[in-house]
Amino acid sequence: MMYMLQPKKLLILNILDILKRYSDQEHRLSQKDIEEILEKDYSMKADRKAIKRNLMNLIDYGYEIGFTEIPRAGKTGEETICTDWYLERDLTDAELRLLIDSVLFSKHLPYNQCKQLIEKLEGLSNRYFSSKMRHVRNLPENTPANPQIFYSIEVLDEAIEKHLQVAFALNEIDHNKKRIVRTDSQGQVRYFTFNPYQMVATNGRYYLIGNFDAYDNLAYVRLDHISDISLLETRAKPMKKVAGLENGLDLPEHMAEHIYMLYGNTVRVHFKAPKTLADQIVDWFGYSFTVLSEDEENIAVQVDVNERAMRFWALQYGTFVEVLEPKSLRDDIIKSVRKMMSNYSV
Q1: Do 21 and 67 fall into the same domain?
Q2: Which whole-number Å values give the CA distances from 184 to 60, 191, 192, 229, 232, in the listed order?
Q3: Which end of the chain has fewer surrounding CB within 10 Å, N or C?
Q4: Do 206 and 126 reside in the same domain of the chain?
Q5: 231 in a domain, yes or no?
Q6: Is residue 149 very low, low, confident or very high in pLDDT (cuts 50, 70, 90)?
Q7: Judgement on whether residues 291 and 330 belong to the same structural domain of the protein
Q8: DSSP alpha helices (H): ranges in 90-225?
Q9: Same domain, 239 and 292
Q10: Are 197 and 191 in contact (CB under 8 A)?
Q11: Mean pLDDT, to the nearest integer, of 97-124?
Q12: The pLDDT value given to residue 75
């Protein structure tokens, strides 16, 4: 891309832009390389002394710029040549790739916003990194989009910081795969007053943890199900007045106990599973479980977990896991299994 002839005072900015676009530890630039790119891409001529002076000024301004010093014999004795210039990145390519993949496989971001966010992340690296990420151009649009999600996050951030309530409408997907808004008995959009305490990402979804003001129990709301959010001037209900948050919110512990983000009581569960399932147990419960006993093939496990979530988890791994206690949960799972059997009976 050719630029209009630029004034010399922009030289330092153009050199910084070249370092951002063309350099990293694996792709270093000599002053001659920078000189050629300046003329080709920016229609700007500069000698190597001016380029080096501006490079050193960038370092003085605090930019992390690496280079190699090579000693050589000069007319007045030994002198040092500086070459192999590159901009040290705040994020490595591997770290950027991890962030991009996190966006890529999220289930709560609309298709267009997902692509835009990935492009911004790509912009934190250089042209060599971007060329490796062309596959993200083929993102499938698998879920109905909620374009308001980023705005909802901004409002919720402010509400949580200032301990204020919010009001919003709730959406759901109907059998025609269309996003619809919940309404009241008169067909008017129903708005909910909510006390927000924390936002978390789990299982590829983004959730809001808090309390519907009309009730005293804990609630979880998927952020992509929120629309028309507004920040209220009323103070949020203190956590200690919400059942389950009397002692505050210990987020790591809370997430380990609520693996499916379902409300309800936390119970102590004993279950039996094969040792080969240990990876999946850690994936879902973290390291908060206790192994009570073991034999050659199986382990007996104790974990404090949301009762409803444990029921779903036990059914998910039903051919491997047997819940032993509490009896009420075991009986509930037995009923579910019998119902499943009746659904598949011929």
Answers
A1: yes
A2: 63, 9, 11, 17, 21
A3: C
A4: no
A5: yes
A6: confident
A7: yes
A8: 93-104, 111-122, 127-131, 149-162
A9: no
A10: no
A11: 73
A12: 66
